[in-house]
Amino acid sequence: MLDFSGLPRYGSVRPKHVASAIDQLLGENRALIARLTAKATVASWKEFADPLENANERLWRAWGVVAHLHAVEDSATIRGAYNANLPKITRYRTELAQNLQLYEKFKALRASMGFEELSQAQRKIVENDLRDYRLGGAELEPPSKRRFGEIQEELAALEAKFSENLLDATKAFSALIAYRRELLGVPEDVLEAAKEAALQDGQEGWKLTLHAPSYGPLMQYAENRDLREKLYRAHVTRASEFGNPALDNTPIIARELRLRKEKAQLLGYKTFAELSLVPKMAESPAAALDFLDDLAARALPHARKDYAEMEEFARAELGIQELQVWDIAFASERLRAKRYAFSDQEVKRYFPEPQVLEGMFRLVESLYGIRILPDTAETWHPAVRFFRITDPNEGLIGQFYVDLYSRETKRGGAWMDEAITRQRIPGGLRTPVAHLICNFPAPVGNKPALYTHDEVMTLFHEFGHGLHHLLSRVDDLGVSGIRGVEWDAVELPSQFMENFCWEWGVLTRLTAHVETGEVLPRSL
Q: Is the pLDDT of residue 80 over 80?
């Protein structure tokens, strides 16, 4: 964990390493802060801001390894190490944000003649740091600072517990189906995966779960309405008062809301929404709500029309007299199949994973004049792959991990996260490294994984975030890659990449029928 010379050592990190590494880095950082806040230290970029940023980067990188493993390969031991050290990290973040001497040094740097001589990126970092000191409670009176720190620590613990409860509740549910007739309409690849899951448990039949590759297709295709209802109720009541009390997130949500409001009011804001928007593009909660209200007003008439058509179709064609929430995906898919003579299952046979990845990489290469090639690195799971990005003039410019498949030990959803951020360092350039994480169905047997068009869009979306991080040309940590970007603006590159999934020229690169190799017909 303390080796920062290259890539993270995911295959070598053990939970027992965490506490000693974090304690050492915290001790080093606190000693550095004591030196930096001394009167003898000049409030300049070189003597003050840059050393502080570099020291914090080492700590964030080390802790990032632990947080990443907690999210993608959770276990009792890694969870224990994460939760044992989370309060230390949270306390340090609060100390850092509330250190009045550091805040004064940054203000002195901002007011100095040397500030205008800094690069645009460095000036932006200083401005952002000043804002973050204010939002971190640096200007509060001592009693309020103490309370703010208590809130921060409790919120961090609650947020971790919330995620763990949701993962544990998702893992806790499964349904073993003994008879094939109960699974009419379910696609063959989903059935094969369910049968394999049952066999891994030493059972006969089909094991259904609440993980996305199982739950999604079952809600969309299973003709068994009682089964859809059972799965839906289990899914929407995960980690709630309707399940295991030990995993109930209801009191956690209520407590978080109260703490967030108290935190905002300590800083002089009426609501947490106001505080949350300070570092974002949206000007105010009212502006955000006005946008959403306008969008709803435009979309609602069309949504009501579509829903009425689906209700009529369900009554006439499916024998469902009163449409329930567990019927929506099923009825919608049946209506689409009848109206347009195609289904997601037909389309996904044209999107085998190897072709999708190859097509996406070649597209990006043509857009940016780069090359994406397989590479090797220590990983956290055998299914994880690793790639490098090269430029004909610059050589290596970035690397990334791809972890596509759903696992019981993995947090739900899809995301991109940074492992290393681009930075100019003495003697050269530290190139960026990213994680690209999804929860797609894994291959079954010797067949490739097949993706729906929605899943392809998700992959493009997350790779858009990855490219934002990996193709950055900014050499200063605080604003390199996705850092320092407003959280509502950071979605632009990802949305940009999604749009390519609708371009015919791109679709011909992404598709090859799993059996015939044909590209997606334009009629689909």
A: yes
Q: What span, in angstroms and rounded, lies between the C-alpha atoms of 403 and 145?
A: 41
Residue 340: per-residue pLDDT: 86
CA distance 475 to 52: 16
Quote the DSSP letter at residue 479.
Answer: G
Which pLDDT belongs to residue 441? 94
Q: How far, in Å, CA of 125 to CA of 484, rounded?
A: 8
Helix (H/G/I), strand (E/B), else coil: 410: coil
Spatial CA neighbour of 99 closest among 155, 50, 33: 33
Residues 154-204 pLDDT 10s: 999 999 999 999 999 999 999 999 999 999 999 999 999 999 999 999 999
In the three-class reduction of DSSP (H, G, I as helix; E, B as strand; rest coil), residue 513 is classed as: coil
Q: Which residues pair with 387 in a beta bridge?
A: 374, 400
d(CA 83, CA 268): 31
The pair of three-digit structure tokens given for residue 370, joined into one six-digit string = 């780069």
Q: Mind listing the pLDDT tens digit for each residue in 116-155?
A: 999 999 999 999 999 999 999 999 999 999 999 999 999 9
Cα(441)–Cα(310) distance, integer angstroms: 28
Q: How many helices (H) and strands (E) does the chain have?
A: 18, 9
117 catalytic residue (yes or no): no
For the chain, the average pLDDT equals 97
User: Domains in the chain and their CATH numbers?
Assistant: 15-139 (1.20.1050), 170-280 (no CATH), 283-341 (no CATH), 353-510 (1.10.1370.40)
Nearest CA-CA partner of 507 in 492, 496, 521, 493: 521
Find out whether 166 and 249 touch, Cβ atoms under 8 Å: yes
Dihedral angle sign, alpha carbons of residues 363, 367, 371, 377: negative
- Whole-number Å distance between alpha carbons of 101 and 36: 9
For residue 363, the SS3 value is helix
Is 407:381 a contact under the CB 8 Å cutoff? Answer: yes
Catalytic residue among 153, 164, 418, 462: 462
The one-character DSSP state at 352 is B
Number of Cβ within a 10 Å radius of residue 337: 14
Q: Are 479 and 125 in contact (CB under 8 A)?
A: yes
Cα–Cα–Cα angle for 182, 183, 184, nearest 5°?
A: 100
Going by C-beta distance under 8 Å and a sequence separation of 6 or more, which residues neighbour residue 514?
Answer: 349, 350, 352, 447, 448, 450
Helix (H, G, I), strand (E, B) or coil at 406: coil
The two tokens of residue 342 are 């195609």
Tell me, letter by letter, the H, E, C secondary structure of 434-471. EEEEEEECCCCCCCCCECCHHHHHHHHHHHHHHHHHHC
CA–CA gap between residue 15 and residue 5 (Å, rounded): 21
AA letter at 519: V
Residue 363 and residue 500 in contact, taking contact as beta carbons nearer than 8 Å: yes
| Cα 258 to chain centroid, rounded | 25
